[in-house]
Amino acid sequence: MPWIQLALAVGAQLAGSVFVATPAFLIPLLHGERGLTLAEAGVLAGAPNLGLVLTLVAWGAMADRFGERLTITAGLVLGCAAAVGAWQAEGYGWLGVFLLLGGMAAGSASSASGRLVVGWFARDRRGLAMGIRQMAQPLGVTVAALAVPPLATAGGVGGAVLLSVGLTGAFAIACALGIRDPHRPARPTGPAPATANPYVGRGFLWRIHAASVLLVVPQFALSTFGLVWLVAELGWSPLAAGALVGGAQFAGALGRIAVGVWSDRIGRVRALRRIALAGIVVLVALAGLAGLQWAAPAAIAFVVATCVSVADNGPAFTSVAEYAGPAWSGRALGLQNTGQFVAAALVGPGIGALIGLVGYPLAFALIALTPAAAWPLIPAHDRDHPES
């Protein structure tokens, strides 16, 4: 049963991730053929992430109160409706509205699926299980990278969005039928240690949240602008660039499993600290190779940087859920996601404007400042729920 629940959690998260990632792979069409500026196209690419920001904590609270099955299923149904709206949208204004609404719906799986996994797996296997669950986001980007460019070429924006209509609809049915909420002790009627607010008087969660916000910037910068960099600067075709970006995301997804197992052995926050240091190194290397216009080494550095940029999510999410405890994990994971997607929503227009101002190589180098700032924020040791 735990592995079935994990598979459904991955599927639900993947469906939402495909929807959220789709606009990034429409940037070459919107910018190159439809006349939008890179910053304007970046606004559309960031719209689903903004939608996530607005609802993640609310979805987490709903999961804490009503359980994961209802929360995830409701989000997928609403996401399917938003994808249909984006498919039929006339004009970029309405497209942006439905992308925003679809992002709001995708927040259900982002907040509740991690809670589902932590509830079904024992501590010594949570790193592995959460690593597999965290594969869903880069796998969603992989699917979008491989499918959206040819779908957009054949059917425009509407044709690309149809993929999300099918995925969210299919997984809404699967999750409604297959998800089983994990057994948890009944809530006490009065104040009790197990329900103590893990944020009051303690800084552990706030430090993890802050570090995660910084560490997510390279992830979304590379996934949003990697394809257009390969096409515009290195001369790759959109299909070849999409294949490389998709391959990099798939490699990163597999890497999350290895990082999850690694975090089970050495600890969540120790893994996070090492990932932050690796992020600095690979982004500086990518910036140098991009500046030298060495196409093959730069492409390899991009793949490595992509893998490192997605590696932190599993240990961070597991650490948050373990420290928050079952009564608060939905809201804590919602807040964790909220901070990350605030940053992601700003990455589209912000990094797009930065690239337009200083170019790709210097932009990559400046992005390396975010893991450098994250490293001292990461706590030195793992902690469980303060009252457990």
Structural summary, described in words:
The protein is globular, with a radius of gyration of 20 Å. It contains 15 helices and no strands. With 388 residues, it is mainly alpha-helical. The protein has helices at residues 2-21, 27-33, 38-66, 68-88, 92-120, 123-134, 136-178, 204-232, 238-266, 268-292, 295-309, 313-324, 329-358, 360-367, 369-374. The chain has a single domain, classed as MFS general substrate transporter like domains (Growth Hormone, Chain: A). The two termini are 26 Å apart.
What is the CATH class designation? Mainly Alpha
Distance between the termini: 26 Å
**Mind telling me the CATH superfamily name?**
MFS general substrate transporter like domains
Q: From the helix content, strand content and strand pairing, which structural class follows? A: mainly alpha
Helix share of residues? Answer: over 70%
Total helical segments? 15
Low-confidence stretches: 189-194
